[in-house]
């Protein structure tokens, strides 16, 4: 698994596949490369435009029609923006938020983490490939850009979640639709703050998920994706989350349930069926956890949008917190 949980460590990964030289040659002939210059149609309207990406400026179609997404965050934003990609990543059905599940199931899969099917991508004849510059995709960038213009949002553990939908919207020229999504999110934040502001400010919140380190779970900091949304809602963090350094997570033993002792609410990651994700149930099963005030009060707050890749995901986080505050 990648060392950073935000780099996609929540999804199963397999080794990179070999690429057939003949398939790549066909892809080059059919689609061209991402370094092509801007062109203008006979009508005088631009048919391509330059966008800033993690790998520099890339010339892309002004109105791409056949988009392949190789990362779930990009896929979710494409769906939000009203687009229908011709190929998407296989991140594992259980990790796809329910709002996207039907559309995701209906779309051909071209990757499973670092296992990228370049030949299948070429067969789909994309005019644009979008994603996020996580380490395994960054290594694949050259091969992908030989198939079609490839645009990756810059990836940093310290970046806010909104960087990714904002970049995706720019790549596909849907900034008007993006503005509407942003406004919807801001309106939801404002509504929840107005309704539950006193409760939000009075409580202490920690953010955790099951880890892939043997026998450990992860504590997320205030600048994590969920932490950033909680900050916008005006919360105070419990000592466990407050102690995590910026841009980091803290891996601790399941036996250290006591680190959550001063939390009034704990937010954790769930699968799309609502069940605890990534082994966090090991923590919840311990008597030491059951004896915590937060567990006794029923304030363990699960959300399948724990790693938001889109504005709808972020709204989903807010909705999960609002639902918990209603109880």
UniProtKB/TrEMBL annotation:
<dbReference type="InterPro" id="IPR002491">
    <property type="entry name" value="ABC_transptr_periplasmic_BD"/>
</dbReference>
<keyword id="KW-0732">Signal</keyword>
<keyword id="KW-0813">Transport</keyword>
<dbReference type="Pfam" id="PF01497">
    <property type="entry name" value="Peripla_BP_2"/>
</dbReference>
<dbReference type="GO" id="GO:0030288">
    <property type="term" value="C:outer membrane-bounded periplasmic space"/>
</dbReference>
<protein>
    <submittedName>
        <fullName>ABC transporter substrate-binding protein</fullName>
    </submittedName>
</protein>
<feature type="domain" description="Fe/B12 periplasmic-binding">
    <location>
        <begin position="66"/>
        <end position="327"/>
    </location>
</feature>
<comment type="similarity">
    <text>Belongs to the bacterial solute-binding protein 8 family.</text>
</comment>
<feature type="signal peptide">
    <location>
        <begin position="1"/>
        <end position="29"/>
    </location>
</feature>
<dbReference type="InterPro" id="IPR051313">
    <property type="entry name" value="Bact_iron-sidero_bind"/>
</dbReference>
<dbReference type="GO" id="GO:1901678">
    <property type="term" value="P:iron coordination entity transport"/>
</dbReference>
């Amino acid at each position: 698994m990648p060392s950073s949980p935000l780099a996609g460590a929540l999804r199963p990964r397999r080794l990179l596949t070999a690429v057939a030289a003949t398939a790549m040659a066909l892809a080059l002939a059919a689609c061209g490369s991402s370094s092509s210059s801007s062109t203008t149609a006979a009508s005088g309207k631009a048919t391509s435009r330059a966008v800033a990406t993690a790998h520099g400026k890339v010339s892309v179609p002004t109105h791409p029609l056949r988009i392949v997404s190789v990362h779930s965050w990009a896929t979710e934003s494409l769906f939000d923006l009203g687009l229908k990609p011709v190929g998407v990543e296989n991140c594992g059905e259980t990790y796809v938020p329910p709002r996207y599940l039907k559309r995701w199931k209906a779309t051909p899969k071209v990757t499973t983490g670092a296992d990228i099917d370049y030949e299948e991508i070429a067969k789909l004849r994309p005019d644009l490939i979008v994603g996020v510059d996580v380490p395994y995709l960054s290594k694949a960038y050259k091969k992908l850009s030989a198939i079609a213009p490839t645009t990756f949002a810059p990836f940093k553990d310290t970046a806010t979640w909104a960087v990714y939908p904002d970049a995706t919207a720019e790549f596909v020229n849907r900034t008007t639709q993006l503005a509407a999504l942003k406004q919807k999110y801001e309106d939801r934040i404002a509504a929840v703050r107005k309704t539950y502001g006193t409760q939000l400010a009075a409580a202490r919140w920690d953010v955790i998920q099951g880890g892939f380190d043997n026998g450990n779970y992860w504590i997320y900091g205030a600048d994590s994706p969920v932490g950033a949304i909680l900050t916008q809602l005006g919360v105070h963090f419990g000592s466990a989350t407050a102690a995590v350094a910026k841009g980091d997570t803290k891996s601790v033993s399941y036996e250290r349930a006591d680190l959550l002792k001063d939390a009034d609410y704990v937010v954790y990651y769930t699968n799309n069926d609502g069940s605890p994700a990534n082994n966090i149930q090991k923590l919840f099963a311990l008597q030491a956890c059951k004896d915590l005030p937060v567990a006794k009060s029923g304030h363990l707050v699960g959300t399948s949008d724990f790693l938001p890749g889109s504005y709808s995901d972020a709204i989903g986080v807010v909705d999960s917190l609002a639902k918990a505050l209603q109880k």
